[in-house]
Amino acid sequence: MQNNLRRHIGLALLRIVPAAMLLTHGIPKFQNLISGEEIQFADPIGIGMAPSLFLTVIAEVVCPILIIVGFKTRWAAIPVAITMAVAAFIVHAADSLQKKELALIYLTIFIAISLLGPGKFSIDRK
User: Fold this and answer.
1) Number of domains into which the chain is organized
2) From the centroid of its chain, how far is CA 82?
3) Residue 125 lies in a domain
4) For residues 58 and 42, what is the distance between their CA atoms, to the nearest angstrom?
5) DSSP class of 44
6) pLDDT tens across 43-58, in order?
7) What is the pLDDT of residue 29?
8) Contact assessment for residue 119 and residue 15, using Cβ atoms and an 8 Å cutoff
9) Are 111 and 95 contacting, i.e. CB atoms less than 8 angstroms apart?
10) Distances (CA, A) of 89 to 56, 86, 108
């Protein structure tokens, strides 16, 4: 029983803390999206700056909020992981490991969340 409780607390921490930290990257992008100014954003997969920014905002704002509350957690972690893979392997492809490190850490965490699920302390569990 005690190990099970620790597991669920661990899953909650794995889910909530990185998702909350990712919001600090996503909220400025969201503000950029709604500012009404001309969008200046990377276009790493060739779909245009505005669609790239929109998809990044979904992955760095909407999905982390879903992950924090534990709603559709496994599904919500997938766009985040894809965005972090694009950041690490396309946007920062030529950069040093130090520059890619944060995206790789987030990628690993959100893949783990997608595989493990949200745990007991989530909306999904109810």
Assistant:
1) 1
2) 9
3) no
4) 15
5) T
6) 999 999 999 999 999 9
7) 95
8) yes
9) no
10) 15, 5, 13
